[in-house]
Amino acid sequence: MTRHPRVALYLQDAHALQDGIKYAQYAEQKGFEAVWQAESRLVRDAIVPMAAFAATTSKLKIGSGVINNWTRNIGLLAATFLTLDDLAPNRIICGIGAWWDPLAKNVGIERRKPLLAMRETIEVMRRLLRMENVTFQGEFHKVTGIELDVVHGRREPRHVPIYIGATGDNMMEMTGEIADGAVLNYCVPPEYNDKALELLDKGAKKAGRRVDDIDRPQLVVCAVDPDRKKAIEAAKVLLTQYLAQQPHIAKASGVSDDIVKKVQSILGWPATKEQVHEAMQYVPDEFVLKISATGTPEEARAKVQEYINRGCTCPILYPMADPYLMIDTFSPLAA
Q: 263 with 243: CB under 8 angstroms?
């Protein structure tokens, strides 16, 4: 099977940060294009690991996969990505999303008018990273005469592409209109991409573009093991939690309400390891195989190819079993 020339690594909180650095370095050696760091639940922010990866690699692109547009002041957000670009010039990608409830609500964030909020965030951030002096009076961002006040260092405009992690139809369409790329969801079957590409193309046309002008990396849960059963069990640990805690992804995956409710009835917030293992028994193997690249190396590669065939431009692989085996399995440099 032909190896795809573009492939990236996804890290969340399943591994120690020190191990994540080693995985990123190994992925770089094996020809991976990028490492994307999640900002997951209330356990790990994206920026600190991104800085660690930026400081310990030399070619790898480093993306946030994804931060939210609600919790960082727009000036701080732009300054943060300026700082990351100082560490790794022209290797930083800002992946940003609209966040999700109940977490946002539970920390006091009211996610209203998500499209307008995202549009304003991207407009002001881009202007700041172009080193403009910005005055903007929007509904969500109100700034007066601010700029990135670089005294020591590079003063030229920064190239930080902005990718939206879109889930809803309207956000996906707007992504086609205003973003450099879309971070397509994981925990979805490959055919999910068909509608996503239609929506991206619809939005792109508003800006005089086509869907092919928009990069479309996609998160893919990936459990690779010579023993297929072990691979499935490894993937279930994550997918069981997502069924309960991110119902919008469950809905997009076509999971029955009965399974979701049963899993939710067992898992608390945050879920304990024991609760996850109890709930896993209700998650069918077929569901795992449908929405992730799980199985032997050959099976995992074949599944990822399905996502590519449906419009994914760069699979972003989240290792659920042995990360080194997964990286080797998908290395563009392998024979």
A: yes
DSSP-derived pairing of the beta strands 142-146 and 134-137: antiparallel
What does the DSSP 8-state code read for residue 68? E
The two structure tokens encoding residue 130: 């172009």
Please state, in angstroms and rounded to a whole number, the distance separating the CA atoms of residues 277 and 288.
15
pLDDT tens string 273-321: 899 999 999 888 888 999 999 999 999 999 999 999 999 999 999 999 9
- Give the chain's length: 335
Residue at 269: amino acid letter: W
Place of tokens 């690594």: 9
Nearest of 65, 63, 97 to residue 81 by alpha carbon: 63
Upstream peptide bond of 150 is cis (omega within 30 degrees of 0): no
Q: What are phi and psi of 160, to 5 degrees?
A: -125, 100
Convert 78-94 to b/e letters by CB count within 10 Å (16 or more is b): bbbbbebbeebeebbbb
Strands 217-224 and 92-97, bridge-based pairing? unpaired
Question: Environment class of residue 153 by beta-carbon count within 10 Å: exposed (0-12), middle (13-18) or buried (19+)?
Answer: exposed
DSSP readout, 188-247? Answer: S-TTHHHHHHHHHHHHHHHTT--GGGSB-EEEEEEEE-SSHHHHHHHHHHHHHHHHHH-H
Give the pLDDT score at 249: 62
Residue 226: what residue type? P
Q: Which domains does the chain have, with CATH numbers?
A: 8-226+292-330 (3.20.20.30)
Terminal Cα distance for the chain, rounded: 10
Q: What is the CA radius of gyration of the chain?
A: 20
Q: Which neighbouring-strand residues pair with 37?
A: 11, 64
